[in-house]
Amino acid sequence: MIKLPGLIDPHVHLREPGATHKEDFDSGTSAALAGGITTVLAMPNTKPPIFDAETLDLALNAAKQKARCDYGQFVGAGPANANWNESGREALPLQAAGLKMYLDSTFGELRLDDMTLWMPHFENYPKNMPIVAHSESRSMAAAILFAAIYDRPVHIAHISLKEEVLLIKAARERGIKVTCEVCPHHLFLTKEDIPAISHGHPGRGEVRPRLATKEDVDALWRNLDVIDCFATDHAPHTIAEKDSDNPPPGFPGLETILPLLLTAVNDKRLTLNVLIEKMYTNPKRIFNLPDQPETWVEVDEDSIHEIKASEQLTRCGWTPFEGWQVKGKVRKVVLRGKTAFEDGKILAPAGYGKNVRG
Ligand code: NCD
Ligand code: ZN
Question: For the whole model, what pTM was predicted?
């Protein structure tokens, strides 16, 4: 039996408000607990997106009623909400996990058409609160330049390419305040795996950033010391949606991250200390998260089992890792003195989760 601290996932999509048939704060935080995760930070690309006091209240009220583990909620950067320091608005960033900026994809109200729209966010968002950038390849280089120009920390979401990890390494060596995360699917899958994931439905292989080459994946593993956090980018869509003519990108990941990484520990691809650093110590520091006293995760490190969507608590009903043999299973999660999960059963009631900015 191994005892781990309560793990932190700084990048999840819980689909509330607006798409609770895919996930909500109840099912998503249940999946988190089953995965050994006691804090989730939720992304703002919901319907409506979370970008002002009213929409933040929508998400936080739902979370307060339903969450079974601790949570934070990001606000999204849009073209017209960068006045973070205007009178009466100073409090808003303090209630949010951080600011999420979508720098290359377009997301309705979270659309930032050109870099002049990035500037006021970098100027006005409080420097002691996190900014997370969804930025791929060259737009990531632009995000790093913004971190340098405005001399403030920026966290790069889900890096997947060799050029990205090498650029972050170079930026850090020059003192730029950039941190980053990588997702299990970019460490354990390449684009060659898409046919096997798809089972004849190409939509199942769709994820952003896209699965990359073996050379990219090898570069991520070789440069693990540059990577601050492991994050799932848990992006649940139902199997019917994934198999439709217009499949949305995204993979679920809350219930598979720990078994996959424990298997890699068993294979000597990383150490347990590195796992704890990237799933607890570093995200706790980067996102300025409170202590969770009397909180731990008990793992049976010798349990060999098969990943099965049918056993998962996420509402989406599928996983790109279906049928994988993994070694290491979450047995029990104790959160703030209470057994929240044990032997496949969620024991924390809805509403037990606390807001990390509460
Ligand atoms: C994300 C989602 O489904 O919300 N999908 C994904 O593939 N990561 C959206 C996104 O970040 O592009
Ligand atoms: Zn995401």
Answer: 0.98
| Residue 54 maps to a domain | yes
Residue closest via CA to ligand 1's atom 6 equals: 250
Q: Tens digit of pLDDT for each residue in 40-88?
A: 999 999 999 999 999 999 999 999 999 999 999 999 999 999 999 887 7
**CATH number where 238 lies:** 3.20.20.140
Whether 355 maps to a domain, the answer reads no
d(CA 38, CA 332): 12
Looking at the 3D structure of the chain, how many domains does it have?
Answer: 1
Establish if 98 belongs to a structural domain. yes
Which residue has the least CA distance to atom 11 on ligand 1?
208
Give the number of the atom of ligand 1 that is nearest the alpha carbon of residue 158. Answer: 8
Domain that residue 94 falls in: 2-346
As a whole number of angstroms, the distance between CA 358 and CA 347 comes to 23
* Closest residue by Cα to residue 315 from 8, 40, 44, 19: 19
Model pLDDT for residues 199-250, shown as the tens digit of each residue: 899 999 999 999 999 999 999 999 999 999 999 999 999 999 999 999 999 9
